[in-house]
């Protein structure tokens, strides 16, 4: 069986930012021309990432403009540790289980990359990057020009020399990452767009991955999420406050507007005064939750939402709190302060899977659910159930190892309205 390797870029991929750009903002904060220098450094970064300037020229130009020293690097490292991409941060377990298979390959510098990625169980010997040259006072005066990663096509040269035996998958945001596929060094190139989408790179990719969850999902690898949030479409209807939309976008959901998008909506974010009736609900067969920016008592058909297993949160004054409750429901299963569902606040769990079922409020439903687990020898860690006059809402946390057929069995229970595997 072939071994798989995962080649991951650092800047704007593993982290949300370009580290040299951030270093410039630290080292030049008192420089009178700092804004002009920042723009020049960012321009050199983007030209290289888009393949419009050789990497060596870009790197050399940026390092010369930095005027940085070891003290500045310490401040940068502290900053970068808080800037790890959200979807990488929540998948620490993947890196722990694949420590032998993950390589960080970057045109950045080991001096700041190593301390940022080591807490993610990435082996020191699997970090490939440039190194700075310092003068006697600790000032950065250049870089090791013999390192292949300092040159154009450096990642390609490095992988040729390494001669890895197995299937190699590359994840990155820039031209140098795509070059690995262009020169036949990797099986597939995934353009990572969680932080920045470079059109010239995304167009050439085998797959555009808006999050690391998406990469794990399409490659059938274990993930912190059962289903990538970027695949859950949030459709905005009407003039919804920007902060609410921005919150859900930042949390990783795909934001859409327009009537045609409703058919794929997992979330509806609806402006106050808009009617949410049966006709609208019938257009949205995938809908899980509605965030209503106003008083929905006269505008929303709560009964129709409830019997379809759709949770509703509404608030007359606080649009951001509505968005946060919507996200909490999708991410954790919480229905606290919903307008139509039993109110459940749930603990987060580790080393377990959370299964969520919405069913008609009929006798014996919980017994049927537990019978499915018992027949397959599944150990239940915790279980939560609340009902109202129409539905029952049951959350079951089970041990991490279980027969996948259990999902099929749970979905087939008579009386089930909706079922999802949360994580």
Automatic annotation (TrEMBL):
**Enzyme Commission number, as recorded:** 1.1.1.399, 3.1.3.3
One of the record's GO cellular component terms: cytoplasm
Which residues are in the ACT domain? Answer: 354-423
Q: Which UniProt keywords apply?
A: Amino-acid biosynthesis, Hydrolase, Magnesium, Metal-binding, Serine biosynthesis
Cofactor annotation? Mg(2+)
BP-aspect Gene Ontology terms: L-serine biosynthetic process
Molecular function (GO) terms for this protein are:
L-phosphoserine phosphatase activity; magnesium ion binding; NAD binding; oxidoreductase activity, acting on the CH-OH group of donors, NAD or NADP as acceptor
Q: Does the keyword Lipid metabolism apply?
A: no
- Catalytic activity, reaction form: O-phospho-D-serine + H2O = D-serine + phosphate; (R)-2-hydroxyglutarate + NAD(+) = 2-oxoglutarate + NADH + H(+); O-phospho-L-serine + H2O = L-serine + phosphate
The pathway entry for this protein reads as: Amino-acid biosynthesis; L-serine biosynthesis; L-serine from 3-phospho-D-glycerate: step 3/3
Origin, by domain of life?
Bacteria
Alphabetized InterPro entries for the sequence: ACT-like_dom_sf, ACT_dom, AHAS_small-like_ACT, D-isomer_2_OHA_DH_cat_dom, HAD-like_SerB, HAD-like_sf, HAD_sf
| Function comment | Catalyzes the reversible oxidation of 3-phospho-D-glycerate to 3-phosphonooxypyruvate, the first step of the phosphorylated L-serine biosynthesis pathway. Also catalyzes the reversible oxidation of 2-hydroxyglutarate to 2-oxoglutarate.
Database matches in PANTHER family = PHOSPHOSERINE PHOSPHATASE
* Protein's recorded name: D-3-phosphoglycerate dehydrogenase
**Organism source for this protein?**
Chitinophaga silvisoli
